[in-house]
């Protein structure tokens, strides 16, 4: 289980429970046509993955407050891809509501590197508009840049003294929960 604000997995937290599983691909051809093997296995930070593997994200809102969830994937080339929500799907999870998100890793441009899954949970008031942060994805961020839309938003949201985000609020905003899981992307190792 992910813990808010930390790059960790399999730790309990109140609010949003995040569990990530991995299903290994048979091959890593360009079309990923060779399928995957066996069951989904839990992962930890630094877990090795290769092209064509599948990742399964299981989310469970254990908080009494609804959460608006956004899931982003940062590949080894620092491209940020929005994974969830997609299309017109609602990203709000009520108390004890669960969802599962699957993604097939396809990365033909990098031999190896770090990749990361970022889950952002924003507390939601009843009847409030949904917070969808998929616009934080940037298809080609600069490696040299020390900030960008994702970094700027997360840094301001993580500041406990922050009382406004381009709006005027009289009270502090509820803290944003961020769970980060890192993967070691590279060529398929020997079995």
Anisotropy-based shape: globular
Given helix and strand content, the structural type is mainly beta
Order of helices and strands: EEEEEEEEEHE
Helix content: under 10%
How far is it from the N-terminal to the C-terminal residue, by CA? 27 Å
User: Uncertain regions: pLDDT < 50 for 5+ in a row?
Assistant: 1-13, 140-146
Report on this structure.
This protein has 191 residues and is mainly beta. Helices cover 5% and strands 34% of the residues. The protein is built from 1 helix and 10 strands, in the order βββββββββαβ. It has one helix at 149-158; strands at residues 16-23, 41-42, 47-49, 54-61, 66-74, 80-84, 92-93, 98-104, 113-124, 177-185. The strands form 2 sheets. Strands 3, 5, 6, 7, 9 and 10 form a 6-stranded mixed beta sheet that branches. The chain has a 4-stranded antiparallel beta sheet with strand order 2-1-4-8, with no helix packed on it. It starts with 15 loop residues before the first strand and ends in a 6-residue tail after the last strand. The relative contact order is 0.23. The model is unreliable at 1-13 and 140-146 (pLDDT under 50).
Could you outline the blueprint of secondary structure elements for this entry?
Layout: E1 16-23, E2 41-42, E3 47-49, E4 54-61, E5 66-74, E6 80-84, E7 92-93, E8 98-104, E9 113-124, H1 149-158, E10 177-185
Parallel strand pairs: 3-10
Antiparallel strand pairs: 1-2, 1-4, 4-8, 5-6, 5-7, 5-9, 9-10
Which terms would index this structure?
10 strands, 191 residues, disordered N terminus, mainly beta, 6-stranded mixed beta sheet, 4-stranded antiparallel beta sheet, 1 helix
């Amino acid at each position: 289980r992910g813990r808010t604000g930390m790059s960790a997995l399999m730790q309990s937290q109140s609010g949003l429970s995040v569990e990530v599983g991995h299903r290994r691909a048979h091959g890593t051809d360009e079309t990923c046509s060779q399928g995957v093997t066996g069951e989904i296995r839990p992962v930890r930070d630094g877990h090795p993955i290769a092209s064509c593997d599948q990742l399964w994200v299981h989310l469970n809102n254990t908080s009494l407050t609804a959460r608006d969830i956004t899931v982003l994937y940062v590949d080894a080339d620092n491209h940020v891809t929005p994974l969830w929500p997609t299309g017109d799907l609602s990203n709000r999870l009520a108390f004890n509501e669960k969802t599962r998100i699957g993604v097939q890793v396809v990365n033909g441009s990098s031999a190896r590197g770090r990749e990361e899954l970022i889950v952002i949970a924003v507390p939601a008031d009843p009847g409030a508009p949904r917070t969808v942060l998929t616009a934080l994805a940037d298809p080609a961020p600069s490696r040299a840049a020390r900030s960008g839309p994702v970094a700027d938003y997360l840094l301001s949201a993580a500041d406990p003294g922050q009382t406004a985000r381009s709006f005027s609020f009289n009270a502090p905003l509820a803290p944003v929960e961020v769970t980060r899981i890192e993967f070691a992307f590279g060529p398929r190792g020997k079995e």
